[in-house]
Design a protein that fits this description.
Blueprint: E1 13-19, E2 24-32, E3 38-39, E4 42-45, H1 50-70, E5 76-83, H2 86-89, H3 92-104, E6 109-110, H4 119-125, H5 144-163, E7 172-176, H6 182-191, E8 195-199, H7 203-213, E9 216-217, E10 230-233, E11 252-253, H8 265-272, E12 276-277, H9 280-283, H10 286-293, H11 300-308, H12 310-324, H13 328-347
Bound molecules: nicotinamide-adenine-dinucleotide (NAD).
């Protein structure tokens, strides 16, 4: 039953949207609007089943609530998934039908790009509904550089905390996924003197990283076991599980991907192995911060300052984790739930 779904976390509403004419099949999950409209991207993925799509959207939308609250944004959390192959199934009619669904929610859900949904798609949708963020007008545009920037700062903070090193110079980092976030992250790390290993399902991206950053290519299947200091997951989620965690050689896990832990138990597994994990929804908040700042009074300096505070939040989590002997994932969830409870108390 949808209501007994293991990822159901008292979500406020879940909408199943279907448009026969355009082939649209989408699920929009609003996890919380306690602190403001539910904000989160829309992804388009050829899920193997509706069940897989529902699991993804329920987890991702809860993650957005936690991400937005930990980033101090006046937004709740939501997410949407369009079921389909973006290369084959995406059309102007499908994007328009989806935008109509967003409009129907009258601003309770604000969305933007994510995996499989790019800037051009977001721009096309913005002609149908105003509840879109991340379009070039009125903001910083593409959020990926700001996500990458927050992840870079987070890696520096984690390396300082766990390896007692003041910079990433000479630190060996595996970047898994060289897309909009991963490639920029690799660029920053390389410029700061880090040594890079990389992996991607797209061989052209691996080749680009080899040429530009003297990166070493690592096999996808066994990449988690690479002999590196930092593992930066920047592809899809759930790469950290009962099978991969025992093989990790990295002492830090810090990357841009959402939902890096397959289950909550995996945060504990990392902690027990002495691996410092930068909670995904804290370290990868740069993009959502940039989109949240968009609007008529957009101020690039103020937005960049806000992205710059991600590292401080992570440092607080690392310190509390050390002091209390608890996993960083547990500390982050606790802080997020506390802030939500505070918001609920003030709206009562
Ligand atoms: P993207 O689609 O631009 O890049 C993903 C890259 O990963 C691609 O190069 C793809 O070929 C590669 N890839 C896919 N499966 C892989 C696998 N199994 N092994 C190795 N590489 C694989 O996406 P992105 O915008 O860079 O986002 C990457 C991750 O970061 C996603 O999990 C996304 O949800 C998360 N994220 C992105 C942003 C943002 O601002 N773009 C913000 C927060 C979180």
């Amino acid at each position: 039953s949808v209501f007994e779904h293991c990822q159901f976390d008292n979500h406020e509403a879940v909408y199943f949207c279907r448009d026969e004419a355009s082939g649209l099949c989408a699920i929009i999950a609003l996890h919380s609007t306690l602190r403001g409209p539910a904000m989160g991207g829309t992804r388009m993925v050829p899920y193997a089943s509706d069940e897989e799509a529902l699991t993804d959207v329920l987890r991702l939308s809860r993650g957005m609530t936690f991400k937005n609250v930990m980033a101090g944004l006046p937004f709740g959390g939501g997410k949407a998934v369009i079921i389909g192959d973006p290369a084959k199934d995406k059309s102007a009619a499908l994007l328009q039908a989806y935008a109509v669904e967003i409009e129907r929610l009258q601003g309770r859900f604000v969305t933007g790009e994510d995996v499989g949904i790019g800037m051009a798609d977001v721009q096309a949708m913005s002609s149908v509904t105003a509840h879109i963020r991340g379009v070039p007008d009125g903001g910083a545009g593409d959020p990926s550089p700001f996500t990458a920037s927050g992840v870079y700062d987070g890696i520096v903070a984690a390396v300082r905390h766990r390896l007692d090193r003041g910079s990433v110079e000479g630190i060996h980092v595996l970047v898994q996924g060289l897309g909009a976030v991963g490639m920029r992250l690799a660029e920053r790390l390389f410029a700061a003197g880090a040594r890079l290993s990389v992996t991607d399902t797209n061989p052209n991206r691996v080749e680009e990283a080899r040429e530009r950053f003297a990166a070493e290519a690592v096999d996808i299947a066994s990449c988690c076991a690479a002999d590196v200091d930092v593992y930066a997951p920047c592809a899809l989620g759930a790469t950290l599980d009962a099978a991969t965690i025992p093989t990790l050689k990295a002492s830090v896990v810090a990357g841009g991907a959402n939902n890096q832990l397959a289950t909550a138990e995996d945060g504990r597994r990392l902690h027990e192995r002495g691996i410092l994990y930068a909670p995904d929804y804290v370290i990868n908040a740069g993009g959502v911060i940039s989109t949240a700042h968009a609007g008529p009074s957009f101020d690039m300096g103020r937005m960049l300052d806000h992205v710059g505070r991600i590292a401080g939040t992570l440092e607080d989590i690392f310190r509390l984790s050390k002091a209390e002997g608890l996993p960083t994932s547990v500390i982050a969830d606790r802080l997020a739930r506390k802030r939500l409870a505070d918001a609920a108390a003030t709206t009562r």
